[in-house]
Amino acid sequence: MNYLILVSHGQFSVGLKDALEMFVGDGIKTVKAIGLQSGEDTDHFENRFRSLLSTLEQNSELLILGDIIGGSPLTTVVNVLNQENRLESTIVLGGMNFPMALNATILKDSASKDDLISSVLREGASALKQFEINDDPEDDDEI
Fold first, then answer.
1. Contact 108, 116 (CB under 8 A)
2. Cα atoms found within 13 Å of the Cα of residue 74, Cβ hemisphere only
3. What beta strand segments (E) does the chain contain?
4. How many CB atoms lie within 10 A of CB 45?
5. Cβ atoms within 10 Å of 58's Cβ, excluding its own
6. Sheet with strand 61-66: strands edge to edge
7. Residue 17 half-sphere exposure, CB side, CA atoms within 13 Å?
8. Where are the domains of the chain?
9. 112 phi/psi in degrees, rounded to 5
10. Are 116 and 91 in contact (CB under 8 A)?
11. For 20-79, how does the pLDDT look when each residue is reduced to its tens digit (9 = 90+)?
12. Domain 2-127: which topology?
């Protein structure tokens, strides 16, 4: 079984998982979320992540999406995975956003490792754009 683990500062990962539930239904069972809370030290966060990790199948593959590469939450998670010899079966990506998480949830069980990485990163990047209102009445879809 493959798991997606959302890692963030604060409640971002929990909120993102909540939003994913609206789109993926039962697929959410293999999505986990954990965030370093305000005022929480990294040792406590590490213990909470170890606890979460212990609930997952030992031979499972993991896809970790973190909010910031180099941030304390993601660094702590990677250190634990390294100590538990789980990095070889783990993909770690940073800069997570909703399109990345949705794409990862849908593809994590079917795409090859390389295709998963490129698809998730491409989806996350392509979602970044400025919203513009088009005032051209000829572009209206109404008939």
1. yes
2. 19
3. 2-9, 31-36, 61-66, 90-94
4. 20
5. 9
6. 31-36, 2-9, 61-66, 90-94
7. 23
8. 2-127
9. -65, 165
10. yes
11. 999 998 778 999 999 999 999 999 999 999 999 999 998 899 999 999 999 999 999 999
12. Rossmann fold (3.40.50)
